[in-house]
């Protein structure tokens, strides 16, 4: 049994289009910010309040980076699964700074598109999930689940009851 767990799950919206760059070794790295929001009613004033948190996400997985480059745009709703990592860097004035990011690395993590693409975006993909490097064009994520679960890209299950008469394709 593991002594600790470093796992982050976010569902939110992109704040701007992703930034794509390549390492010296030719690996594609994609980074973007995801906004998550909490809303509540203030007990004293009765008015509606909202707090938005911004999360920096960095993808080091080549297949997910390709998906992010092709399909992610400002405002898209995404499901992110990764781990937290804090790194230290020095700014232009020589001051040491720290940044905490959600990392989707080569072998762990998940990226799933939860909304439908707008006109002209990702015509071949209805907005499904891409997890652990499994970037399938039909939107099948690395996990399975029922209607409105992250693994099926937020799509509703077909209505109409129990269709046991359907042909099974396998």
TrEMBL record:
Could you confirm whether the keyword Nucleotidyltransferase appears in this record? no
Q: Cross-referenced Pfam families, in alphabetical order?
A: SSB
Keyword DNA-binding among record annotations: yes
Keywords for this protein: DNA damage, DNA recombination, DNA repair, DNA replication, DNA-binding
Give the DNA-binding residues. Answer: 54-60
PROSITE patterns associated with the record: SSB
Location of the region described as Disordered in the Swiss-Prot/TrEMBL record:
113-170
Motif Important for interaction with partner proteins — list its residue ranges: 165-170
Quaternary organization: Homotetramer.
**What is this protein's function per UniProt?**
Plays an important role in DNA replication, recombination and repair. Binds to ssDNA and to an array of partner proteins to recruit them to their sites of action during DNA metabolism.
What protein am I looking at? Single-stranded DNA-binding protein
């Amino acid at each position: 049994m593991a002594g600790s767990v470093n796992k982050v799950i976010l569902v939110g919206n992109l704040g701007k289009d992703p930034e794509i760059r390549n390492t010296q070794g030719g690996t594609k790295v994609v980074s973007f910010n995801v906004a998550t929001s909490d809303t509540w009613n203030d007990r004293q004033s009765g008015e509606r309040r909202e707090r938005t948190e911004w999360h920096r996400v960095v993808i080091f997985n080549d297949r997910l980076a390709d998906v992010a480059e092709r399909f992610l745009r400002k405002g898209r709703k995404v499901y992110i699964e990764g781990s937290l990592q804090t790194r230290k860097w020095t700014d232009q004035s020589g001051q040491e700074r720290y940044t905490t990011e959600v990392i989707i690395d080569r072998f762990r993590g998940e990226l799933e598109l939860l909304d439908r693409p707008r006109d002209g975006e990702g015509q071949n993909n209805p907005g499904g999930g891409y997890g652990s490097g499994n970037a399938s064009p039909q939107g099948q994520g690395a996990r399975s689940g029922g209607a409105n679960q992250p693994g099926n890209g937020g799509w509703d299950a077909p209505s109409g009851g129990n269709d046991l008469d359907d042909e099974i394709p396998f």
